[in-house]
Design a protein that fits this description.
Strands 2-1-3-4-5 form a five-stranded mixed β-sheet, with helices on both faces. It is elongated and about 70 Å long. A hairpin with a 5-residue loop joins strand 1 and strand 2 (about 140-150). It has nine helices and five strands. Helix 8 packs across helix 9. It has two domains: about 10-100; about 105-225, Cytidine Deaminase, domain 2 (3-Layer(aba) Sandwich), CATH 3.40.140. It is α+β, with helices and mostly antiparallel strands.
Length: about 230
């Protein structure tokens, strides 16, 4: 007796259940992550629909899109049914989503640590450590966001004078520092605390205030100002 399970190709599904048709009739919000991913990869394999393949892809990332966004082409290709073209499509789509979510509105008003965290969302899913600075005018509105340094998975070198130069070039009245911890641990290290104080003291010489230092982890952040570390 053959107990091998068989799948039904998406083209034979009820029209309301097909991802593309479902998006058209019910809107993008009605689709699951797997269904949206299925639209991207377009086809499944001989024994698996695009939706089932997408569910398996997501499962490999613990059903976490942030984790999936960190996969390389080579890592995705290790999954059965994923070739180079599908892997590239997935990575490109997730990168577009990351850029959309990380791009702050012009003249964003920074009123609290949550505002700063949103402006630093570009750091949220990187596998290398980066240091950025928000440059604000007298009304605490964002005039520019600048990458200061790019490091490895465990650290990055920050030049205090470079940050001060950026602040002076943009005539900033105050700044917010920000960097990420690829490990996901948002607690500040001693070097984090030391560089914060160095930048704060250097900025004061030019009447520039350091309002906060945000450490970005995986869907979480640490605020030096909120925690009384500034």
């Amino acid at each position: 007796m053959d107990t091998t399970s068989k799948y039904t190709p998406i083209k034979l599904w009820a029209e309301d259940d097909r991802p593309r048709e479902k998006l058209l009739t019910k809107g993008r919000q009605a689709l699951s992550d797997a269904e949206l991913l299925a639209i991207l990869i377009s086809t499944g394999s001989k024994n698996e629909s695009a939706v089932d393949l997408s569910k398996r892809i997501l499962k490999s990332a613990n059903d976490n899109l942030l984790t999936l966004s960190r996969f390389s082409v080579a890592e995705l290709k290790k999954l059965k049914g994923i070739g180079e073209a599908k892997a590239i499509t997935i990575i490109a789509a997730l990168e577009l989503g990351r850029r959309r979510g990380s791009e702050p509105l012009s003249r964003t008003h920074i009123t609290c640590s949550r505002d700063s965290y949103k402006a630093f969302h570009v750091l949220n899913d990187l596998d290398t450590e980066q240091f950025w600075v928000l440059l604000l005018n007298r009304a605490n509105r964002l005039v520019h966001r600048q990458q200061v340094s790019l490091g490895g998975s465990t650290g990055t070198v920050v030049e205090v004078k470079q940050i001060i130069k950026f602040a002076l070039d943009w005539r900033a009245n105050s700044i917010v520092l920000g960097h990420n911890h690829p490990s996901g641990n948002i607690n500040p290290s001693e070097p984090d605390k030391n560089i914060t104080q160095k930048i704060k003291q250097a900025a004061l010489l030019f009447d520039i205030q350091v309002l906060d230092h945000i450490i970005v982890g995986e869907n979480a952040y640490f605020s030096f100002a909120d925690e009384g570390e500034l």
